[in-house]
Amino acid sequence: MIPSMIKCPICHTMMAMGENGRSLCCTGERKKHCFDLAAGGYVNLISGHAAGGDSREAVRARTAFLEQDHYAPLADEVIRALREYGDIGVGSTVLDAGCGDGYYLNRAAEQLGLTGLGFDLSKFAVDHGAKTARRRGLGERMFYAVASVFELPVADGCADAVINLFAPCVEKEYARVLKQGGLLVVVGAGEKHLYELKQAVYDEVYLNDTRADLPTEMPLVAHLTTEFEVNLERAEDIESLFSMTPYYYRTSARGFARLHALTRLSTRACADIYVYRKPE
Ligand SMILES: C[S@@+](CC[C@H](N)C(=O)[O-])C[C@H]1O[C@@H](n2cnc3c(N)ncnc32)[C@H](O)[C@@H]1O
Question: Are 118 and 144 in contact (CB under 8 A)?
Fold first, then answer.
Protein backbone atom coordinates (compact mmCIF):
# COMPACT_ATOMS: atom_id res chain seq x y z
CA MET A 1 0.00 0.00 0.00
CA ILE A 2 1.42 3.39 -0.95
CA PRO A 3 -0.24 6.01 1.18
CA SER A 4 -0.81 9.46 -0.22
CA MET A 5 1.11 11.12 2.63
CA ILE A 6 4.64 9.89 1.75
CA LYS A 7 7.08 12.68 0.87
CA CYS A 8 10.23 12.55 -1.24
CA PRO A 9 13.23 12.57 1.12
CA ILE A 10 15.18 14.69 -1.41
CA CYS A 11 12.84 17.39 -2.75
CA HIS A 12 10.00 16.92 -0.23
CA THR A 13 7.23 16.77 -2.84
CA MET A 14 4.55 14.10 -2.44
CA MET A 15 5.17 10.62 -3.85
CA ALA A 16 3.09 8.15 -5.82
CA MET A 17 3.59 4.73 -7.38
CA GLY A 18 5.73 4.98 -10.54
CA GLU A 19 4.48 3.78 -13.93
CA ASN A 20 6.36 0.48 -13.64
CA GLY A 21 4.38 -0.33 -10.47
CA ARG A 22 7.60 -1.21 -8.63
CA SER A 23 8.95 2.11 -7.49
CA LEU A 24 7.84 5.19 -5.61
CA CYS A 25 8.40 8.42 -7.53
CA CYS A 26 7.99 11.99 -6.45
CA THR A 27 6.11 14.73 -8.22
CA GLY A 28 9.06 17.13 -8.30
CA GLU A 29 8.90 19.44 -11.33
CA ARG A 30 12.57 19.55 -12.26
CA LYS A 31 13.65 15.97 -11.58
CA LYS A 32 11.75 12.85 -10.57
CA HIS A 33 13.31 10.94 -7.70
CA CYS A 34 12.38 7.25 -7.73
CA PHE A 35 12.92 4.59 -5.04
CA ASP A 36 12.46 0.91 -5.88
CA LEU A 37 10.28 -1.31 -3.74
CA ALA A 38 12.25 -4.27 -2.33
CA ALA A 39 10.96 -7.78 -2.98
CA GLY A 40 9.62 -7.94 0.57
CA GLY A 41 7.49 -4.84 -0.02
CA TYR A 42 9.38 -2.14 1.88
CA VAL A 43 11.09 0.88 0.32
CA ASN A 44 14.44 2.40 1.25
CA LEU A 45 13.88 6.17 1.49
CA ILE A 46 17.33 7.01 2.80
CA SER A 47 19.02 8.60 -0.15
CA GLY A 48 22.69 9.16 -0.79
CA HIS A 49 24.14 7.57 2.35
CA ALA A 50 24.07 4.14 3.88
CA ALA A 51 21.40 3.48 6.46
CA GLY A 52 22.33 2.05 9.85
CA GLY A 53 20.10 0.87 12.63
CA ASP A 54 19.99 -2.65 14.00
CA SER A 55 22.08 -5.31 12.28
CA ARG A 56 20.67 -8.43 10.66
CA GLU A 57 21.70 -10.46 13.75
CA ALA A 58 20.13 -8.02 16.21
CA VAL A 59 16.87 -8.02 14.24
CA ARG A 60 16.90 -11.82 14.01
CA ALA A 61 17.31 -12.16 17.80
CA ARG A 62 14.60 -9.56 18.53
CA THR A 63 12.19 -11.20 16.10
CA ALA A 64 12.85 -14.69 17.48
CA PHE A 65 11.98 -13.39 20.94
CA LEU A 66 9.01 -11.15 20.09
CA GLU A 67 7.33 -13.70 17.84
CA GLN A 68 6.89 -15.97 20.84
CA ASP A 69 4.63 -13.21 22.22
CA HIS A 70 6.62 -12.77 25.44
CA TYR A 71 5.93 -9.01 25.15
CA ALA A 72 2.30 -9.37 24.05
CA PRO A 73 1.04 -7.85 27.35
CA LEU A 74 3.03 -4.69 26.58
CA ALA A 75 1.76 -4.55 23.00
CA ASP A 76 -1.80 -4.96 24.23
CA GLU A 77 -1.39 -2.16 26.77
CA VAL A 78 -0.17 0.18 24.00
CA ILE A 79 -3.13 -0.90 21.85
CA ARG A 80 -5.49 -0.25 24.76
CA ALA A 81 -4.00 3.25 25.21
CA LEU A 82 -4.44 3.99 21.49
CA ARG A 83 -8.09 2.98 21.67
CA GLU A 84 -8.89 4.57 24.99
CA TYR A 85 -7.08 7.91 24.67
CA GLY A 86 -7.05 8.34 20.87
CA ASP A 87 -10.14 6.47 19.70
CA ILE A 88 -7.85 4.77 17.18
CA GLY A 89 -9.57 2.24 14.93
CA VAL A 90 -10.56 1.57 11.32
CA GLY A 91 -9.59 4.58 9.19
CA SER A 92 -6.96 5.87 11.66
CA THR A 93 -3.33 6.26 10.58
CA VAL A 94 -0.69 5.23 13.13
CA LEU A 95 3.01 5.84 12.56
CA ASP A 96 5.57 3.69 14.42
CA ALA A 97 8.81 5.68 14.76
CA GLY A 98 11.70 3.21 15.11
CA CYS A 99 9.31 0.31 14.43
CA GLY A 100 11.94 -2.43 14.47
CA ASP A 101 10.49 -5.61 12.98
CA GLY A 102 6.93 -4.25 13.15
CA TYR A 103 5.80 -6.51 15.98
CA TYR A 104 3.81 -3.80 17.76
CA LEU A 105 2.49 -2.03 14.65
CA ASN A 106 1.30 -5.21 12.92
CA ARG A 107 -0.40 -6.40 16.10
CA ALA A 108 -2.12 -3.01 16.51
CA ALA A 109 -3.23 -3.13 12.87
CA GLU A 110 -4.70 -6.60 13.35
CA GLN A 111 -6.59 -5.65 16.48
CA LEU A 112 -7.71 -2.12 15.60
CA GLY A 113 -8.02 -2.23 11.80
CA LEU A 114 -5.80 0.83 11.48
CA THR A 115 -3.52 1.89 8.63
CA GLY A 116 0.15 1.63 9.68
CA LEU A 117 3.33 3.45 8.67
CA GLY A 118 6.50 1.85 10.04
CA PHE A 119 9.86 3.62 9.79
CA ASP A 120 13.24 2.36 10.95
CA LEU A 121 16.87 2.87 9.98
CA SER A 122 17.39 -0.89 9.74
CA LYS A 123 16.45 -2.41 6.37
CA PHE A 124 16.49 -5.86 7.99
CA ALA A 125 13.87 -4.71 10.48
CA VAL A 126 11.45 -3.08 8.01
CA ASP A 127 11.88 -6.00 5.60
CA HIS A 128 10.62 -8.29 8.33
CA GLY A 129 7.77 -5.92 9.20
CA ALA A 130 6.58 -5.68 5.61
CA LYS A 131 6.83 -9.43 4.99
CA THR A 132 4.93 -10.24 8.18
CA ALA A 133 2.21 -7.73 7.27
CA ARG A 134 1.81 -9.38 3.86
CA ARG A 135 1.76 -12.88 5.33
CA ARG A 136 -1.00 -11.87 7.74
CA GLY A 137 -3.08 -10.24 5.02
CA LEU A 138 -2.40 -6.70 6.31
CA GLY A 139 -0.27 -5.64 3.36
CA GLU A 140 -2.89 -3.30 1.88
CA ARG A 141 -3.01 -1.25 5.05
CA MET A 142 0.69 -1.19 5.93
CA PHE A 143 3.65 0.75 4.59
CA TYR A 144 7.22 0.06 5.78
CA ALA A 145 10.26 2.13 4.83
CA VAL A 146 13.87 2.70 5.80
CA ALA A 147 13.94 6.26 7.14
CA SER A 148 15.26 8.18 10.11
CA VAL A 149 12.94 9.19 12.91
CA PHE A 150 14.73 12.56 12.87
CA GLU A 151 13.37 13.26 9.37
CA LEU A 152 10.25 11.24 8.69
CA PRO A 153 9.29 11.19 4.98
CA VAL A 154 5.64 12.06 5.55
CA ALA A 155 3.44 15.14 5.25
CA ASP A 156 2.74 17.41 8.21
CA GLY A 157 -0.31 16.45 10.27
CA CYS A 158 -0.91 13.07 8.61
CA ALA A 159 -0.97 10.74 11.63
CA ASP A 160 -3.70 10.19 14.20
CA ALA A 161 -1.09 8.66 16.50
CA VAL A 162 2.64 8.06 16.71
CA ILE A 163 3.98 5.15 18.73
CA ASN A 164 7.62 5.03 19.81
CA LEU A 165 8.91 2.01 21.72
CA PHE A 166 12.51 1.72 22.89
CA ALA A 167 13.70 3.85 19.93
CA PRO A 168 14.87 7.49 19.83
CA CYS A 169 12.11 9.95 20.73
CA VAL A 170 12.17 13.13 18.63
CA GLU A 171 9.37 15.27 19.99
CA LYS A 172 9.55 18.07 17.43
CA GLU A 173 9.39 15.70 14.45
CA TYR A 174 6.59 13.61 15.96
CA ALA A 175 4.61 16.78 16.71
CA ARG A 176 5.03 17.83 13.08
CA VAL A 177 3.59 14.59 11.66
CA LEU A 178 0.68 14.39 14.14
CA LYS A 179 -2.75 15.82 13.43
CA GLN A 180 -4.01 18.38 15.91
CA GLY A 181 -5.32 16.41 18.86
CA GLY A 182 -3.23 13.39 17.76
CA LEU A 183 -1.66 11.02 20.27
CA LEU A 184 2.00 10.29 20.96
CA VAL A 185 2.66 7.07 22.90
CA VAL A 186 6.24 6.67 24.14
CA VAL A 187 7.41 3.47 25.84
CA GLY A 188 10.53 3.07 27.96
CA ALA A 189 11.96 0.51 30.35
CA GLY A 190 10.61 0.75 33.89
CA GLU A 191 13.10 1.05 36.73
CA LYS A 192 13.00 -2.70 37.54
CA HIS A 193 12.74 -3.91 33.93
CA LEU A 194 14.43 -7.32 33.61
CA TYR A 195 15.93 -6.95 37.09
CA GLU A 196 16.30 -10.72 37.59
CA LEU A 197 18.10 -11.06 34.25
CA LYS A 198 20.57 -8.38 35.31
CA GLN A 199 21.00 -10.07 38.71
CA ALA A 200 21.93 -13.30 36.93
CA VAL A 201 24.63 -11.55 34.90
CA TYR A 202 26.06 -8.85 37.19
CA ASP A 203 27.36 -8.71 40.77
CA GLU A 204 25.90 -5.26 41.30
CA VAL A 205 22.54 -4.33 39.79
CA TYR A 206 21.24 -0.78 39.33
CA LEU A 207 17.70 0.41 38.72
CA ASN A 208 16.98 1.88 35.27
CA ASP A 209 16.70 5.64 34.91
CA THR A 210 13.65 7.20 33.26
CA ARG A 211 14.15 7.82 29.51
CA ALA A 212 16.16 11.00 29.06
CA ASP A 213 14.47 11.96 25.77
CA LEU A 214 10.84 12.18 26.90
CA PRO A 215 8.80 15.01 25.35
CA THR A 216 8.85 18.26 27.27
CA GLU A 217 6.44 20.45 25.26
CA MET A 218 3.46 18.22 24.46
CA PRO A 219 0.94 17.83 27.29
CA LEU A 220 1.07 14.45 29.08
CA VAL A 221 -2.36 12.81 29.21
CA ALA A 222 -1.46 9.65 31.10
CA HIS A 223 1.51 7.80 32.56
CA LEU A 224 0.72 4.07 32.60
CA THR A 225 2.88 1.24 33.84
CA THR A 226 2.75 -2.41 32.98
CA GLU A 227 4.50 -5.39 34.60
CA PHE A 228 4.40 -9.03 33.65
CA GLU A 229 6.39 -12.24 34.05
CA VAL A 230 8.63 -13.52 31.26
CA ASN A 231 9.45 -17.22 31.65
CA LEU A 232 12.18 -18.54 29.41
CA GLU A 233 13.07 -22.23 29.19
CA ARG A 234 15.74 -22.11 26.50
CA ALA A 235 19.25 -20.65 26.56
CA GLU A 236 18.78 -19.10 23.11
CA ASP A 237 15.68 -17.20 24.24
CA ILE A 238 17.59 -15.82 27.23
CA GLU A 239 20.40 -14.71 24.91
CA SER A 240 17.88 -13.13 22.50
CA LEU A 241 16.28 -11.18 25.32
CA PHE A 242 19.65 -10.01 26.63
CA SER A 243 20.69 -8.94 23.13
CA MET A 244 17.63 -6.66 22.97
CA THR A 245 18.92 -4.65 25.94
CA PRO A 246 21.58 -1.92 25.94
CA TYR A 247 23.61 -4.04 28.43
CA TYR A 248 24.47 -6.45 25.61
CA TYR A 249 27.00 -3.97 24.27
CA ARG A 250 28.72 -3.26 27.58
CA THR A 251 29.00 -6.58 29.36
CA SER A 252 32.31 -8.21 30.31
CA ALA A 253 33.41 -11.69 29.26
CA ARG A 254 32.64 -12.79 32.83
CA GLY A 255 29.08 -11.47 32.50
CA PHE A 256 28.62 -13.31 29.20
CA ALA A 257 29.94 -16.53 30.76
CA ARG A 258 27.26 -16.17 33.44
CA LEU A 259 24.62 -15.45 30.79
CA HIS A 260 25.58 -18.49 28.73
CA ALA A 261 25.39 -20.74 31.77
CA LEU A 262 21.67 -19.93 32.18
CA THR A 263 19.25 -22.54 30.87
CA ARG A 264 16.05 -21.09 32.30
CA LEU A 265 15.01 -17.69 33.61
CA SER A 266 11.99 -16.00 35.14
CA THR A 267 12.16 -12.24 35.04
CA ARG A 268 9.70 -9.36 35.17
CA ALA A 269 9.25 -6.98 32.28
CA CYS A 270 8.33 -3.49 33.54
CA ALA A 271 7.52 -0.71 31.12
CA ASP A 272 6.49 2.93 31.41
CA ILE A 273 3.95 4.08 28.84
CA TYR A 274 3.66 7.84 28.42
CA VAL A 275 0.65 9.17 26.51
CA TYR A 276 0.84 12.74 25.12
CA ARG A 277 -1.66 14.69 23.05
CA LYS A 278 -0.78 17.36 20.50
CA PRO A 279 -2.95 20.39 21.34
CA GLU A 280 -5.99 21.07 19.09
C1 LIG B 1 15.59 -1.16 20.70
S2 LIG B 1 15.03 -1.25 19.03
C3 LIG B 1 13.26 -1.12 19.23
C4 LIG B 1 12.50 -1.56 18.02
C5 LIG B 1 10.98 -1.64 18.21
N6 LIG B 1 10.40 -0.35 18.49
C7 LIG B 1 10.64 -2.63 19.31
O8 LIG B 1 10.37 -2.20 20.44
O9 LIG B 1 10.66 -3.83 19.02
C10 LIG B 1 15.47 0.35 18.45
C11 LIG B 1 15.17 0.52 16.96
O12 LIG B 1 15.40 1.89 16.62
C13 LIG B 1 16.01 1.89 15.35
N14 LIG B 1 16.67 3.20 15.23
C15 LIG B 1 17.74 3.70 15.92
N16 LIG B 1 18.00 4.96 15.55
C17 LIG B 1 17.07 5.30 14.61
C18 LIG B 1 16.80 6.46 13.84
N19 LIG B 1 17.55 7.56 13.96
N20 LIG B 1 15.78 6.43 12.96
C21 LIG B 1 15.02 5.32 12.81
N22 LIG B 1 15.21 4.19 13.53
C23 LIG B 1 16.22 4.17 14.40
C24 LIG B 1 16.93 0.68 15.33
O25 LIG B 1 17.27 0.27 14.03
C26 LIG B 1 16.05 -0.32 16.08
O27 LIG B 1 15.24 -1.06 15.20
Answer: yes
- 98-117 pLDDT, tens digit per residue, is 999 999 999 999 999 999 99
Instruction: Give yes or no for a contact between 186 and 214, defined as CB atoms under 8 angstroms apart.
Output: yes
Measured by CA distance, the residue closest to atom 10 of ligand 1 is 167
* Residue of 122, 163, 194 to mutate, ligand 1, most atoms within 8 A of C-beta: 122
In this structure, the residues whose C-beta lies within 6 A of any atom of ligand 1 are 53-54, 62, 98-100, 103, 120-122, 125, 148-150, 165-168
For the chain, the first-to-last Cα distance in angstroms comes to: 29
Q: How far is the CA of 10 from the centre of ligand 1 (A)?
A: 22
**CA 172, 144, 96, 146: dihedral to nearest 10 degrees?**
-50
pTM: 0.96
Instruction: Specify the CATH superfamily of domain 15-277.
Output: Vaccinia Virus protein VP39 (3.40.50.150)
Q: Collapsing DSSP states into helix, strand and coil, what is residue 174?
A: helix
Mutation choice for ligand 1 from 96, 119, 149, 170, CB with most ligand atoms inside 8 A: 149
pLDDT, one tens digit per residue, over 221-259 is 999 999 999 999 999 999 999 999 888 888 889 999 999
- Boundaries of every domain in the chain: 15-277
CB atoms within 10 A of CB 264: 11
